[in-house]
Amino acid sequence: MAGPEDLAALLAEEERLQFPNFDQATALALGRLMLDRAERDRLPVTIDIRRGEQQLFHAALPGTSADNDAWVERKARAVRRFGHSSWYLGCLARAKGYDFHAKFALDPARFAAHGGSFPIFVKGTGAIGTVTVSGLPQQEDHRFVTAMLHEFLVTMA
């Protein structure tokens, strides 16, 4: 179960991983970085990057299926609704002892508070999209996304 320090660390991660700007070229460059790393490490993941409702990048590597696309949709929908990473949303529900879907009257077929989707934050603007991975255990999905965001943002600085 996540403790308050874990939740605080996840919120700090959201504060730290923010873009100075974000457009189609940024999405493509980030997507390529993630795809290259996933191919290098032979990760069976689906990668999805969106600005609002527009899908700017999508790749499905060997070992994935249409189920991963459905998980991407469900996780990203939760992030768009609540403005926090899907891992944070699940950890918060576990820490507070509530059922995520019941508390917010959400259809489990449409929303998932499972790790792997992260808000795309633009400094001074807020959340404008999502970057989502599906295919690994949920905490590993989250770690892959955040590690790739950190690596990419370092190159933008």
Characterise this structure.
There is one protein chain. By secondary structure, the protein is an alpha+beta fold. It has six helices and five strands; from the N terminus they run H-E-H-E-E-H-H-H-E-E-H. A five-stranded mixed sheet has the order 1-4-5-2-3, sandwiched between helices. It has a single domain (4-156), classed as Haem-degrading domain (Beta-Lactamase), CATH 3.30.450. A hairpin with a 3-residue loop joins strand 4 and strand 5 (126-134). The mean pLDDT is 96. The chain has helices at 4-16, 24-40, 66-82, 86-96, 100-103, 138-156, and strands at 18-19, 46-51, 54-60, 117-122, 126-134. Helix 1 (4-16) packs antiparallel against helix 4 (86-96).
The CATH superfamily appears as Haem-degrading domain
| Helix-and-strand structural type | alpha+beta
Total separate domains: 1
Q: List the total number of helices.
A: 6
The CATH architecture term is: 2-Layer Sandwich
Question: pLDDT under 50 segments (min length 5)?
Answer: none
In the CATH scheme, the class would be: Alpha Beta
Task: Please indicate the percent range of residues in DSSP E strands (runs of 2 or more).
Answer: 15-25%
In whole angstroms, how far apart are the ends? 35 Å
Mean pLDDT, as a whole number?
Answer: 96
- Helix and strand element order: HEHEEHHHEEH
The strand order across the widest sheet is 1-4-5-2-3
Note the main sheet.
5 strands, mixed
How would you sum up the global shape? globular
Helix content: 40-55%
Record field, number of beta strands: 5
CATH topology: Beta-Lactamase
| Cα gyration radius (Å) | 15 Å
